[in-house]
């Protein structure tokens, strides 16, 4: 609802920004599955995005594929890639997994920057056509804003379902205690790989749509700093819940604008935020909100537990009988 | 009928022989206790059966099928559930979530069903929620279903862990020190529960130091010492076995 209002209120610049936020929500939701649910560290998220982004860029510009074909191919390729690396690196845990994924991110940067015949090196791939589906061409900011948010919200909804499902519970059991998980009958290595493949699908879709949106595939869109940004956003938002992506994604995208006045000092503001929030609130921003929520008077909380539908029913029940 | 058959199971950790050609059988519907001094290899026995680590040699058969080569989760799938010596409930999840995770074996919704929250997945959820609440009620924790496992006292978490193991409707329960750290009332409750489970047709193997509990609950006892099985028999037989007395009290006492 808010998104629809913003659509009519915002100017071009902010609409663009909101579109980037939608794509960031999508990628962050994917990261939440691997990091938030399964509890595994991933420092090469941008590699997965790059695979999706460059696949569709190459297929649409050099081979004349339709964008939808490119995007789907990119996602499938990334899922296969995630499966292959997952089989190998997910034998590692914690710091060792971090190092392995960091290595993949560094390799990605080197390949994307130097394999000029395929990736165009540092100039990237230009002239990527706008995304189109059947007769619909998403060549304006407005149309892409709608597309990006529809995809992001759908992806988020799937992740939400996943959280309270059999597979989601298996993921969460793995993140708490692998020995317990396998003693219960959960195939730990299989679910870890599945979790990475799913995160890969989200990342690739986000990366591919991003490339179609800006019409370019650039190394800087998918370098190691992007991987760190995703990780930081996830931690800052709070790993306990997928709602947090709606807090973290806007914050990270607006932060550069909000701190523009501070000039070079803005890095200090970033640094303080990223140290202090996880330090004092392990649950991230979502954790802070829950903390405040728990301290609200019960009468107020009663109205709002259980989402909009319950809120309305609660208010309805409290109306005088004659009005009902 | 033999439910579990252990055939000359051996486990070496480098030069240490934690289990040395241990053989025994577990009959259906019995409660078998494994006792022995610290470091006798009792927990190692559980860990080898459930494949926390593989056996050096020997065979494990369950319901007549060789499960020696099975992976840890396949053992659980075949119907063996366990609890851990140091309670391992998932403490930042609710008691009910712990139980529903325990029901993993009973369901088969895949990744897509989970993402889409398909009607079949929702039906399954409802079913295992009911089973979970039943299991919680069985151990007397129905009122704590929506509390975080970590907020529950130690004794209650032990019951929760037992309930979680029961959630998968196992044929065989391996309980690693079920009453360690429990007070007398809690121990009595646990003993009652085990008898009730036995009546419901479950088979239990337990490791325990609390002798009173072992003598009261178990149908049969095996004794391990330094990785060797030194005795096997009814609780009364074990109590009077000179070798067992020697293992527990030292040689000079038995002489």
Summed up:
The complex is a heterodimer of chains A (324) and B (255). Chain A has 16 helices and four strands. Chain A is mostly helical.
Task: Explain this structure.
- The complex is a heterodimer of chains A (324) and B (255).
- By secondary structure, chain A is mostly helical.
- Chain A folds into 2 domains: 2-264, ABC transporter involved in vitamin B12 uptake, BtuC (Orthogonal Bundle), CATH 1.10.3470; 281-324, no CATH class.
- Helices cover 74% and strands 3% of the residues of chain A.
- Chain A has 16 helices and 4 strands.
- Chain A has helices at 2-9, 12-37, 45-62, 67-89, 94-114, 116-119, 141-163, 166-176, 178-184, 188-214, 224-237, 245-258, 266-280, 284-294, 298-304, 307-318; strands at 125-126, 131-133, 136-138, 216-217.
- In chain A, the strands form 2 sheets. Chain A has a two-stranded antiparallel sheet with strand order 1-4. A two-stranded antiparallel sheet of chain A has the order 2-3.
- In chain A, a hairpin with a 2-residue loop joins β2 and β3.
- In chain A, α2 runs antiparallel to α10, α11 (224-237) packs across α12 and α11 (224-237) packs parallel to α14.
- Chain A starts with a helix and ends in a 6-residue tail after the last helix.
- Chain B has 255 residues and is of the alpha/beta class.
- Chain B folds into 2 domains: 1-79 and 171-255, Rossmann fold (3-Layer(aba) Sandwich), CATH 3.40.50; 94-169, no CATH class.
- A 6-stranded mixed β-sheet of chain B has the order 6-7-8-3-9-10, with helices on both faces.
- In chain B, β9 (220-225) and β10 form a beta hairpin.
- In chain B, α3 packs across α5 and α5 crosses α6.
- The longest helix of chain B has 20 residues, at 119-138.
- The mean pLDDT of chain B is 91.
- Chains A and B meet through α7, α8, α9 and α10 of A and α2, α3, α4 and α5 of B.
The largest chain-to-chain contact, stated as pair and per-chain residue counts, equals: A-B, 27 and 36 residues
Question: What name is given to the CATH topology of the largest domain in chain A?
Answer: ABC transporter involved in vitamin B12 uptake, BtuC
Note the beta-strand portion of chain B: 15-25%
Helix content of chain A: over 70%
- What's the helix-strand series of chain A? HHHHHHEEEHHHHEHHHHHH
Question: What are the segments of chain B in which pLDDT stays under 50 over at least 5 consecutive residues?
Answer: none
Structural class of chain B: alpha/beta
Q: How many discrete structural domains of chain A?
A: 2
N-C termini distance of chain B: 39 Å
Along the chain, the helix and strand elements of chain B come as: EEEHEEHEHHHHEHEHEEHHH
General form of chain B: globular
From the alpha carbons, calculate the radius of gyration of chain B and give it in angstroms. Answer: 19 Å
The CATH architecture term of the largest domain in chain B is 3-Layer(aba) Sandwich
Strand order of the largest sheet of chain A: 1-4
CATH topology of the largest domain in chain B: Rossmann fold
Give the CATH architecture of the largest domain in chain A.
Orthogonal Bundle
Count of distinct strands of chain A? 4
């Amino acid at each position: 609802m808010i998104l629809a209002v913003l659509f009519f209120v915002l100017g071009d610049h902010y609409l663009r920004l909101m579109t980037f936020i939608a794509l960031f929500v999508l990628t962050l939701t994917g990261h939440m599955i691997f990091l938030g649910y399964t509890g595994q560290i991933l420092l090469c998220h941008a590699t997965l995005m790059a695979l999706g982004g460059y696949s569709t860029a190459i297929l649409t510009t050099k081979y004349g594929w339709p964008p939808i074909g490119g995007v789907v191919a990119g996602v499938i390729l990334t899922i296969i890639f995630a499966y292959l690396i997952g089989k190998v690196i997910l034998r590692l845990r914690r710091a060792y997994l971090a190092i392995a994924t960091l290595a993949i991110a560094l390799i990605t940067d080197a390949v994307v920057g130097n394999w000029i015949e395929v990736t165009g090196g540092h100039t990237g791939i230009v002239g990527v056509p706008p995304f189109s589906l059947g007769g619909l061409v998403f060549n304006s900011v407005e149309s892409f804003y709608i597309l990006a948010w529809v995809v992001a919200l759908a992806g988020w909804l799937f992740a939400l379902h996943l959280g309270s499902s059999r597979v989601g519970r298996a993921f969460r059991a793995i993140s708490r205690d692998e020995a317990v998980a396998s003693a219960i009958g959960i195939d730990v290595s299989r679910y870890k790989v599945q979790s990475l493949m799913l995160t890969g699908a989200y990342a690739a879709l986000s990366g591919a749509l991003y490339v179609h949106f800006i019409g370019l595939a650039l190394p800087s869109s998918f370098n190691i700093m992007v991987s760190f940004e995703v990780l930081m956003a996830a931690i800052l938002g709070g790993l306990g819940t997928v709602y947090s992506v709606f807090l973290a994604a806007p914050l990270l995208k607006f932060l550069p604008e909000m701190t523009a006045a501070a000039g070079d000092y803005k890095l200090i503001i970033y640094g303080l935020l990223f140290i202090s929030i996880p330090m004092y609130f392990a649950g991230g921003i979502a954790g802070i909100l829950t903390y405040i929520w728990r301290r609200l008077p019960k009468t107020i909380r009663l109205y709002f537990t259980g989402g909009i539908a319950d809120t309305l029913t609660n208010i309805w029940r409290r109306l005088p009988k004659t009005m009902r | 009928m033999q439910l579990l058959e252990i055939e000359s199971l051996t486990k070496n950790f480098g030069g240490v022989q934690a289990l040395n050609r241990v053989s025994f059988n577990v009959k259906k519907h019995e409660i078998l206790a494994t006792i022995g001094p610290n470091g006798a290899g009792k927990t190692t026995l559980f860990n080898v059966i459930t494949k926390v680590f593989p056996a050096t040699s020997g065979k494990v058969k369950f319901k007549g099928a060789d499960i020696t080569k099975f992976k840890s989760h396949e053992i659980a799938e075949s119907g063996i559930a366990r609890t851990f010596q140091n309670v391992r409930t998932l403490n930042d999840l609710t008691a009910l979530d712990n139980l529903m995770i325990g029901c993993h074996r009973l369901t088969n919704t895949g990744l897509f069903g989970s993402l889409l929250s398909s009607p079949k997945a929702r039906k399954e959820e409802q079913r295992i929620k009911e089973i979970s609440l039943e299991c919680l009620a069985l151990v007397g924790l129905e009122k704590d279903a929506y509390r975080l496992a970590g907020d529950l006292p130690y004794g209650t978490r032990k019951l929760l862990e037992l309930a979680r193991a029961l959630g998968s409707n196992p044929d065989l329960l391996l309980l690693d020190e079920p009453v360690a750290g429990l007070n007398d009332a809690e121990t009595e409750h646990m003993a009652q529960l085990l008898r009730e489970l036995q009546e419901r047709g479950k088979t239990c193997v337990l490791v325990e130091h609390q002798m009173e509990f072992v003598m009261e609950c178990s149908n049969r006892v095996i004794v391990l010492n330094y990785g060797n099985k030194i005795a096997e028999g009814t609780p009364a037989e074990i109590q009077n076995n000179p070798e067992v007395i020697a293992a527990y009290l030292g040689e000079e006492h038995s002489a």
